[in-house]
Automatic annotation (TrEMBL):
Entry protein name: Ubiquitin-like-conjugating enzyme ATG10
Key words, A-Z: Autophagy, Transferase, Ubl conjugation pathway
GO biological process: autophagosome assembly; autophagy of mitochondrion; protein modification by small protein conjugation
PANTHER family cross-referenced by the UniProt entry: UBIQUITIN-LIKE-CONJUGATING ENZYME ATG10 (PTHR14957)
UniProt-listed Pfam families: Autophagy_act_C (PF03987)
Keyword Nucleotidyltransferase: no
Alphabetized InterPro entries for the sequence: Atg3/Atg10 (IPR007135)
Family: Belongs to the ATG10 family.
Length: 168
């Protein structure tokens, strides 16, 4: 297999939701019927994030979406981050508070783009390198979406539990 089709992506995210349901991890399937790539999964999670203005940590709520981007032919990890006051954290604010990216170029790594199904602005890991990462898993992984998420998720505070990795 040389790429991840939208159909295979749908099977992979269905498996993620099945695992999540068994371990009560919070992933939910969403379907937009009038869209070729209308299946995506969503998870909300609260975590501590370094405050951009100082060294303290504040609780923030991430809402992760894993959807299929038809233009790139790959899954995308879209997310929004709500601060304690209910406002959204900006791209620049998140970049300042996230040390996982090191010396990376912000705009080559993280971007704000339209969600491929909802057509609303979300933060996202840039999809241009996703095919390269996926390629290493397509021939060997039983679920290349899980394998890909285990690589890219930690950069945005999304760490999959071991139960998911067992299904790769």
């Amino acid at each position: 297999m040389d790429h991840l089709s939208v159909e295979y992506f749908g099977k992979c995210i269905h498996d993620i939701v099945s695992i999540s349901d068994a371990i009560l991890d919070g992933w939910v399937m969403k379907i937009k019927d009038d869209s070729e790539n209308g299946k995506y999964i969503v998870k909300k999670q609260t975590t501590l994030l370094k405050a951009p203005e100082d060294a303290s940590e504040v609780p923030v709520t991430f809402e992760y979406h894993v959807a299929y981007n038809i233009s790139y032919g790959v899954p995308v990890l879209c997310f929004n981050i709500w601060q304690p006051d209910g406002s959204l954290l900006t791209l620049e604010g998140y970049w300042k508070s996230n040390t996982a990216f090191g010396d990376s170029n912000m705009y080559e790594t993280l971007t704000q783009m339209d969600h491929p199904v909802l057509c609303k602005h979300f933060l996202s890991l840039h999809p241009c390198k996703t095919q390269e990462i996926l390629q290493t898993f397509l021939a060997t992984s039983k679920n290349p979406v899980i394998s890909w998420l285990t690589v890219v998720g930690p950069f945005v505070s999304l760490n999959l539990l071991e139960e998911y990795v067992k299904h790769c």
